[in-house]
Amino acid sequence: MTDQPENDPELSTEAELSTESTTAEIETPPAGTEEYFGTAYPAAQRYAEHLATTGIEWGLIGPREVDRLWTRHILNCAVVAEHINDDDVVGDVGSGAGLPGIPIALMRPEAKIVLIEPMERRVEWLTMVVDDLGLKNVRIVRARVEELVDEEMFTVVTARAVKAMTTLIEWTREVISPGGRILALKGASVEGELVKAKKLIKRYRLSQPQIHVVDGGGILEAPSRVVEIVKK
To answer: Could you tell me where the Low complexity compositional bias lies (predicted)?
Structure first.
């Protein structure tokens, strides 16, 4: 079992390896993006450049995503930080291209972010990008999250289009500290996933899920859906 993104057309951050070149220009960030990121904005721009170049070359993101990097990927993930505290230790499950972990790290430089990724190629890319951005609050761990029981403990686990909620709960429940929470970015099918996860949530005595609709104060025309489940 690997931490692979599900086939969700709304939230997919992964693309199959492609030799297709792209002539599209990087999407112009929506109005207010610079203010939203504050002093981290230059690093966010640099991250966008990595996604649009080495991210495509290494097969971490598809060429057709270049003209929507900010709205569909970077900002879509950055808004999760509105539910992250400065003292949180965040495990980003199946991090892939660093989404949502890297945007969260940019928004919350005091929080500790652990990018959890089992594939060597992706880990190498993440290491290169994190070093280039100078993100001192980020660690990268090559592993599946279920292998980290007894090694890591998080106050928050994040995931973007990584498996169904039932699987995510099973994988992460033992690495979340009491009072900690899952923050999962999900698409329109989330209600159905939560119905299927209802028995599991009760069995493990987790809180009833909350769905936060977050738009970054109006920056995103299509808001992000963040499912929050608390470990009691």
So the answer is: 14-31
